[in-house]
Amino acid sequence: MTADAVDLTFQTADGPVHALKGVDLTINRGEFVSFIGPSGCGKTTFLRAIAALETPTGGSLTVNGMTPDQARRARAYGYVFQAPGLYPWRTIAGNIALPLEIMGFSKADRRERVERVLGLVELDGFGGKYPWQLSGGMQQRASIARALAFDADILLMDEPFGALDEIVRDRLNEALLDLWAKTGKTIGFVTHSIPEAVYLSTRIVVMSPRPGRITDVIESTLPRERPLDIRDTPEFIAIAHRVREGLRAGHADEA
Prior knowledge:
Family: Belongs to the ABC transporter superfamily.
Keywords: ATP-binding, Nucleotide-binding, Transport
Number of strands: 9
Domain ABC transporter: 3-234
Distance between the termini: 32 Å
Protein name: ABC transporter ATP-binding protein
Strand content: 15-25%
CATH architecture of the largest domain: 3-Layer(aba) Sandwich
GO molecular function: ATP binding
Largest sheet: 6 strands, mixed
Number of helices: 8
């Protein structure tokens, strides 16, 4: 994915809202890139632009060498929203299979894919349950499984764990790193949490208040295998400090 001087302005009744300005970024295949910044800084808008859910008003954006709309039609990515968005009248397996049904996969192929992704997110045996029978963390794992079902190269995740308590969030952070190691997907991940961004990412993109600009891109020096207690190490703390300084610098620029 490559962004070159991307601007995005929304026209509203109260005048234009400048969501993104001059965003330059390349995300390489197999990377785990987190976006962090204050509320309203454009990080979700940028993720939505990658997914062709918003259209830049300046610059260029390509996904796997295609326009975002071409990438959407080529099923190049799966998208995980903040809320699981599961249909309560469909089983977990039925929810995961829904995009596959829409795409015209055969019944046998759907069944095989659903079973495979349930295993990847550690929900074996829960396919016949309904969303209301699962905890919030399990519902979010089902949402991730749905995004993985058609085996896209890219996984876009918009604060998927933001509404969960810290214990569940830690568990899902570990599970997501394990999933990334198993699948080799390219992941774009939006978060408000500095520890989450540092724990998960190969690179952390720090964004300024609106209009959203990139103030820092931090390469992680942490090993790929990361137990939770790595968060107590001096190396982790140093990266978190740099993220925090980047966020402060963005606010200083705004002032």
